[in-house]
Amino acid sequence: MRVIHIVPGISEEASGPSYSVTRLCQALIEDGDDVRLATLALGPVPPGLPFVKTFPLGVGPRRLGRSPEMKRWLEDQVLSRNADILHNHGMWQMNAVYPGRLARKGNVPLVVSPRGAFSEWAMKHGSSAKRVFWPMFQRPAVKATALFHATAESECRDIRKLGFRQPVAVIPNGIDVPEFLPKVPREIRTMLFLGRIHPVKGLDTLLRAWAAIQERFPDWRLLIAGSDRGYEGSTGYLDELRALSRTLHLKRFEFVGELNGPAKLQAYRDSDLFVLPTHSENFGITVAEALSAGTPALVTKGAPWADLPRREAGWWVEDGLDPLVAGVETALATPPERLARMGGMGRDWMLAEHGWNSIAGRMRKTYEWLSGSEAPPPEWVRIDEPLR
Asked: How much helix, strand and coil, in percent to the nearest 5, is found in the chain?
């Protein structure tokens, strides 16, 4: 298969799609596909990715993601029949509009991965420009979609709620599972949040929850790792959280900054519990990363990790202060040996179901079916199901 993937940027390692889209492309290439990844030149591109093609931004606001060079290149590839599939990741920028227009023009099947952009929270929050961009640019482009890719059943429901009836392939993100290292007992245990510092992550709720229980768990500390830096520069949200932490008089608590590469893996390994108090998440790659490192997770129902309790790998609690307080209390009161066993269960789960070879295989079968295979749709493809 000749597939062109399109994503806004891959320069920020802490950003979920910068990892998951790149690794999906690599896994497809390893399996024999001809894959190219078109992205905007928003920062340094990680080395060793010869399949990546970057394009400069054009005139206009950076957040618009306008790139005439990307558009011309995509048009040339489509009209010269150098692509069997276009696969777009993300929304709300012109680089996500071009694929829809060109797929229709060149009669090439378009796959769209919203990457959380269609959640109820995401549609209601963010820039007011969305109210103009959606009807004028994004929705008309998305109508050209032949198939949506959702990373969870909840995202499939979000797609249906917006009225789209195209097939939806429910395929989770993959994860690289590192070498297993047993937990090292420490006098002070660690609850870790790691990810983008953004209002959607519910970190203000987490700080308030920690304030409510910190006196009852003197052998625990809370670390928050991440940055509020985005394509538009600092959001200022980290400063708001720092001020809130001072107001709440938090103890055994620290913002440790952005962690990438080996430092990020070590943070997962050194932690006894990972927490994601998010309001909305299409997948939550940091949960998979924590589990793969052998650390159990506590996640709110804004993220699609309902199997955590069933897999005995963590907790899945309602979004909100009181449920988060109750969930954290239960988790922190769990004996260290039990937490370590839960982390091991989570790691086994990631090995069994989220390896990149398996994910790439499912994606390629989806592409083949979409390209005209006479075989029935794969079992993970939902065909115009009614809302549940």
From this structure: 40, 20, 40
Question: Read out DSSP for 82-127?
Answer: --SEEEEE--SSGGGTHHHHHHHHHT--EEEE-TTTTSHHHHHSS-
Look at residue 119 in the predicted model and tell me its pLDDT: 76
pLDDT in tens, 281-333: 878 889 999 999 999 999 999 888 999 999 999 999 999 999 999 999 999 99
What whole-number distance in Å separates Cα of residue 358 and Cα of residue 342? 24
Tell me what pLDDT residue 232 has: 46
- H or E stretch at 321: helix 321-332
Please provide the size of the chain in residues. Answer: 388
Tokens of 17: 């799609």
Question: Using CB atoms within 10 A of its CB, is residue 136 exposed (0-12), middle (13-18) or buried (19+)?
Answer: exposed
Residues 120 and 180: their CA atoms lie apart, in Å, by 37
CB 241 within 8 A of CB 207: yes
Burial string for 296-313 (b: 16+ CB within 10 Å, else e) reads bbbbbbbbbbeebeebeb
Structure-token pair, residue 247: 């107001």
Beta carbons of 149 and 112 less than 8 angstroms apart:
yes
Q: Which two tokens stand for residue 51?
A: 């399949």
